[in-house]
């Protein structure tokens, strides 16, 4: 089956320009800290995925339906009132770490935070490291 058309794809948009467009300095600072954290965990440089997601690495994902697409190992996006961090292995297996993380909310594979200063960065780093290790084991590096 051919890869599905997906609007959130890796592109040539500049991560630096994207971050420079952020109007709040604390958001920019938090984004730079997340880039450092995720670059360290993946060994990859940040790339833009769609117009507003910064992702790290790339792997071919195949859904049980047969749909295929390329996706990032981990990523983030500064949204209107919260930072969204993407954990592609989900958050179901991270309850113990989430309990120690600090102020946050979650979705299936998204962690929502107001600001990084609300979090224990060591715990966040451990979460990112575990997620990337799992994804590489499942899908390999590309």
Rounded mean pLDDT score:
92
By CATH, the topology is Aspartate Aminotransferase, domain 1
Beta-strand content: 15-25%
Write the CATH architecture name: Alpha-Beta Complex
Number of domains: 1
Helix content estimate: 25-40%
Number of strands: 9
Strand order, biggest sheet?
Answer: 1-2-3-6-7-9-8
Shape: globular
Please give the radius of gyration in angstroms: 15 Å
How many strands, which pairing sense, and closed or not: the largest β-sheet?
7 strands, antiparallel
Structural class: alpha+beta
Determine and state the CATH class: Alpha Beta
SSE layout and pairing:
Blueprint: E1 10-11, H1 15-20, H2 25-42, E2 46-49, E3 53-56, E4 59-62, E5 68-71, E6 74-78, E7 83-87, H3 95-101, E8 105-106, E9 110-113, H4 121-139
Antiparallel strand pairs: 1-2, 2-3, 3-6, 4-5, 6-7, 7-9, 8-9
Helix pairs in contact: 2-4, 3-4
Describe the structure.
This protein is α+β, with helices and mostly antiparallel strands. It has one domain: Aspartate Aminotransferase, domain 1. 35% of the residues lie in helices and 24% in strands. It contains four helices and nine strands. It has helices at residues 15-20, 25-42, 95-101, 121-139; strands at 10-11, 46-49, 53-56, 59-62, 68-71, 74-78, 83-87, 105-106, 110-113. The strands form two sheets. It has a seven-stranded antiparallel sheet with strand order 1-2-3-6-7-9-8, with helices on one face. Strand 6 and strand 7 form a beta hairpin. Helix 2 (25-42) crosses helix 4 (121-139) and helix 3 runs antiparallel to helix 4 (121-139). It is globular and about 40 Å long. The chain starts with 9 loop residues before the first strand and ends with a helix.
């Amino acid at each position: 089956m051919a890869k599905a058309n997906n609007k959130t794809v890796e592109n040539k948009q500049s991560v630096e320009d994207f971050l420079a467009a952020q109007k709040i300095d604390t958001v920019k600072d938090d984004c730079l800290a997340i880039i450092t954290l995720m670059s360290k965990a993946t060994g990859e440089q940040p790339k833009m995925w769609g117009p507003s997601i910064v992702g790290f690495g790339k792997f071919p994902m195949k859904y049980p339906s047969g749909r295929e697409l390329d996706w990032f190992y981990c990523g983030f996006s500064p949204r209107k009132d919260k930072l969204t961090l993407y954990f592609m292995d989900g958050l179901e297996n991270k309850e113990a770490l989430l309990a120690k993380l600090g102020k946050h909310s979650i979705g299936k594979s998204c962690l929502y935070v107001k600001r990084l200063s609300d979090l224990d960065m060591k715990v966040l780093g451990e979460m990112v490291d575990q997620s990337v290790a799992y994804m590489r084991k499942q899908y390999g590096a590309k």
